[in-house]
């Protein structure tokens, strides 16, 4: 199976390890990721704050490149990129004038017919068909993850049909259960971590992160699992600071779902680059006999 692949800026910078993990895991699942040629930033949350046209035009260019590849779908691991692409596609389907205006400047025109997939839309069917279980050489026994989706994975500023429950998504839980883990039911799985406000408004962001952390600990979690690179970065890189500020003594590893898939498939923590996390994340795997 070959699909187009849009890594986005984070996976070529602060979350480079996530890009590496995606390719390692998908290859073992028989999914060939073909990275878009000459892709550009999707605009993330910043473009929409300053220019409505560019907020649609930037992801539209990537959609045109994806459609020109002739591949049936495009996998987008980053929640922000996934959201921007879906929103742009939806708006262009209903605004022909805007679509014509954007296409007039694009070498590769947008049609609007490529399937946009999150990483969960690729993995959940494989969990339900037991393919993930068959590929696993280790069971993730003892892992009690709080599956953290963040605020952009299932909720959008326009009406979009998503393949999961908007307020209580279950995709990661389905995958974790297929691999032998015991994901927890908890209250903050779709709450915002503060996103980029961690840079210019750390007080508010640290408060949001502390609420997420406290509920996960109260539920008995021994780690977080996420698919969003910004959620992972915030909860990992700032954990020491927001825990200290809000009186939290415990610390929890914040794993990408690809890391747990890789561990289950027998890939070493070093090859997955789990040792690059800010919060020490190898000890738990050793304690559970997974590394």
What report would you give on this structure?
It is a single chain. The chain is globular, with a radius of gyration of 19 Å. It has 291 residues and is of the alpha/beta class. The strands form two sheets. It has a four-stranded parallel sheet, sandwiched between helices. A three-stranded parallel sheet has the order 5-6-7, sandwiched between helices. Helix content is 46%, strand content 9%. The protein has helices at residues 16-28, 47-50, 52-68, 79-94, 96-103, 119-128, 131-135, 171-178, 197-200, 202-218, 229-237, 239-245, 257-264, 269-272, 283-287; strands at residues 2-5, 32-35, 73-75, 115-117, 145-148, 223-226, 254-256. The mean pLDDT is 95. It has two domains: 2-117, Glutathione S-transferase Yfyf (Class Pi), Chain A, domain 2; 134-287, Rossmann fold (3-Layer(aba) Sandwich), CATH 3.40.50.
Helix content: 40-55%
Alpha plus pi helix count = 15
Strand percent estimate: 5-15%
H/E order of the elements? EHEHHEHHEHHEHHHEHHEHHH
Count of discrete domains: 2
The whole-angstrom Rg is: 19 Å
Mean of residue pLDDT? 95
Poorly predicted tracts of residues: none
Give the CA-based shape: globular
- According to DSSP, the number of beta strands is 7
Largest sheet: 4 strands, parallel
From the helix content, strand content and strand pairing, which structural class follows?
A: alpha/beta
Q: What is the C-level CATH assignment of the largest domain?
A: Alpha Beta
Distance between the termini: 30 Å
Give me the CATH fold name of the largest domain. Rossmann fold
Main sheet strand line-up = 2-1-3-4
